[in-house]
Specification:
The chain is an alpha+beta fold and 481 residues long. It is built from 21 helices and eight strands. It is extended, with a radius of gyration of 33 Å.
Length: 481
C-alpha cells in the first residue's frame, strides 16, 4: 500500500500546566498543603511567604518587561544553546496527569521485629533460632502462618540452605506460640483461640469449658448451634453463656494489636468549620488553606535590571530566561492556591446549604439524598472537580468532625413518592437490629417487611446489601443466648 499525505482537522482538549497544578492542589488536604507549599518554596526561589505589598504590581511590571522584550526582539529560543539538546533539560518519563506520590517513612518497630527480640529469651540452638526467625518472617498481618509447613521446609532448603523436617518446624513453632501476644503463630482461627484460652485457664471452670468448646465443638460454635453444644457437653444454658462470653473476649487477630501499636496516630485537621449563630449557619475555612504568598522582590528587581541593560551576553540572556520562568511559575502557584481556596469555599457552601437541616439538628435522618452531580450543577463546576474537593477533606460541626464524603448518598423513593437518602434507611436498619430480640434476630425478609411497613419499598437483596455495608452479620450470626 502506497503512503499518502492528507490534511485533517480534529478537536482536542488539552490541560494547561496551571489546570493540572490546580487539580492536584484541590485533592490535597490541609495537613499536606503546608508541605506542598514548603516544597514549592524550596524549588522556586522566586516564591516567598508573606503578604504582597502592592496588589497587581507584578502584573504591571510584567507588562513593562514584555514591551521591552518586544523592542529587543526577545525570543526564548534564541537563548537556548544549540549545542545542548532539549531532552537534557526536560523529563518525559511520566504523563502530564500523573500524581507525584511521596513514599512515607515508617517509624517504630514492626511486630515481626518485636517478636524476634523476644526470641532471645527462648533457649534455642543456632539452627532453631534461624528457623524461628524465618517463621516469624512468614507471619501475616494478623499473626498467622498460613503457609504449609511442608512448603516452608522446601524454602529453607533452597533459600537458606537449611535442611530440616516438618517435625522440627513444629517444635520451633511451639516456641513462637509462647511469645506475646498470645495466639501468635497459629495456623487457623481455632488454633489461635485455643492458644489464648490455654494461657487464661488458671483453674477456672468456665474457661476450661470454653477451651473444650473450642477444641471439640468449634464448628458448632461458629454456626451458633448452641443446642447441640449443650446436649453433647451436658452443660446448662447458663454455663454455655458464660463460656461464650469468655471466648468472645479473645483476639482473633493478635498480630494486629502489635501492628497497630507500632503505628503513629493520624491527626485530622478540619478543612472547614460550620457554626450556628441564632439559627443561621456560618462557614469558615481553615486559615492554612489561605497562606500568604508573594513573588520575590529581589527576583523582580533582577529581571528589571536585565531588561534595562544594554545588549545582553549569552549568559545574561540565559539568566534572564531563568528568572522569567521562575517568576511566572511563582505567579502560577499563587493563583492556583487562590483558586483552590475559592473552589473549596464555594463547594462547601453549596453542601452546607443543601444539607442545612442536618447541620442545624445533627439528625442523620435529616440528610437529603445528594450526589456529586447535584453540587456540580449548583456551583457550575465539573463532577471530577467536586470529587477532588470531597476527597480527604473534613468539616468540623457542633456534632462532630466528618469527612465530606459522609454527606453524599443515593436517593430512595417512598410510597408517597418522596425522595429520601439511603442513609436514613440504613439508620432505621441499625436501630431495628439494635432493638431486636437477640435470641431470635430479625432475618433480612423481616427487615424488608419492617421497612415496607414504614413506607420504604425495598427488596430483600437490597436490605442484605445495606446490612453488609453497615458490617452487620446475618441473623444467624447475631444470635445470642
Amino acid at each position: 500500500m502506497a503512503l499518502k499525505q492528507s490534511l485533517s482537522q480534529r478537536l482536542e482538549q488539552k490541560l494547561s500546566p496551571q489546570q493540572i497544578q490546580l487539580m492536584k492542589l484541590l485533592q490535597v488536604p490541609t495537613m499536606e498543603l503546608d508541605q506542598r507549599i514548603k516544597q514549592e518554596i524550596e524549588e522556586n526561589p522566586a516564591l516567598e511567604e508573606g503578604k504582597e505589598e502592592v496588589e497587581d504590581e507584578f502584573e504591571q511590571q510584567e507588562e513593562e518587561y514584555d514591551e521591552q522584550d518586544d523592542e529587543q526582539d526577545f525570543d526564548i529560543e534564541d537563548y537556548l544553546s544549540d549545542d545542548e539538546p532539549s531532552y537534557k533539560t526536560s523529563v518525559s518519563n511520566k504523563g502530564k496527569d500523573d500524581d507525584e506520590k511521596a513514599v512515607p517513612l515508617s517509624s517504630g518497630k514492626s511486630f515481626q521485629e518485636r517478636l524476634a527480640n523476644q526470641l532471645n529469651l527462648q533457649q534455642l540452638t543456632e539452627k532453631e533460632a534461624l528457623i524461628a526467625t524465618y517463621l516469624i518472617g512468614n507471619l501475616d498481618d494478623a499473626g498467622y502462618i498460613e503457609r504449609e509447613l511442608e512448603a516452608i521446609v522446601d524454602d529453607l532448603a533452597f533459600s537458606q540452605n537449611v535442611m530440616t523436617t516438618e517435625e522440627e518446624l513444629e517444635d520451633v513453632l511451639k516456641h513462637i506460640q509462647k511469645l506475646d501476644p498470645a495466639g501468635i503463630g497459629a495456623r487457623n482461627l481455632q488454633e489461635c483461640l485455643i492458644l489464648q484460652m490455654g494461657r487464661k485457664l488458671d483453674g477456672d471452670i468456665t474457661r476450661y469449658t470454653a477451651l473444650k468448646i473450642l477444641e471439640n465443638h468449634f464448628e458448632a460454635f461458629t454456626k451458633k448451634h448452641y443446642k447441640k453444644i449443650i446436649q453433647k457437653m451436658e452443660i446448662s444454658e447458663e454455663d454455655l453463656k458464660d463460656a461464650v462470653q469468655e471466648i468472645i473476649r479473645l483476639n482473633p487477630k493478635p498480630g494486629g494489636s502489635l501492628k497497630e501499636s507500632s503505628k503513629s496516630l493520624q491527626q485530622i485537621v478540619p478543612d472547614f468549620q460550620i457554626t450556628e449563630i441564632e439559627g443561621e449557619l456560618q462557614l469558615s475555612i481553615n486559615g492554612r488553606n489561605a497562606p500568604e504568598l508573594k513573588v520575590s522582590r529581589g527576583y523582580e528587581n533582577m529581571l528589571r535590571n536585565y531588561s534595562e541593560g544594554a545588549k545582553l551576553k549569552k549568559t545574561d540572556k540565559e539568566a534572564m530566561t531563568f528568572v522569567k520562568q521562575k517568576l511566572e511559575s511563582a505567579k502560577w502557584f499563587i493563583d492556583a492556591i487562590r483558586q483552590r481556596q475559592n473552589t473549596l469555599f464555594t463547594t462547601m457552601t453549596a453542601i452546607m446549604n443543601y444539607q442545612k437541616d442536618y447541620f442545624l439538628t445533627g439528625d442523620e435522618t435529616m440528610l437529603q439524598p445528594m450526589i456529586l452531580k447535584d453540587i456540580a450543577e449548583i456551583v457550575d463546576l465539573d463532577i471530577s472537580t467536586i470529587s477532588r474537593v470531597a476527597n480527604s477533606k473534613y468539616v468540623q460541626t457542633q456534632y462532630g468532625t466528618f469527612s465530606l464524603k459522609h454527606f453524599f448518598s443515593e436517593s430512595l423513593s417512598t410510597d408517597t413518592g418522596e425522595e429520601v437518602s439511603t442513609r436514613k434507611v440504613k439508620q432505621i436498619l441499625t436501630e431495628a437490629i439494635d432493638d431486636e430480640e437477640k435470641r431470635k434476630p430479625l432475618t433480612d425478609e423481616k427487615l424488608a417487611q419492617l421497612l415496607k411497613d414504614k413506607g420504604f419499598n425495598i427488596a430483600r437483596r437490597t436490605v442484605a446489601k445495606y446490612r453488609e455495608q453497615l458490617n452487620i452479620p446475618v441473623a444467624r450470626l447475631r444470635k445470642e443466648l
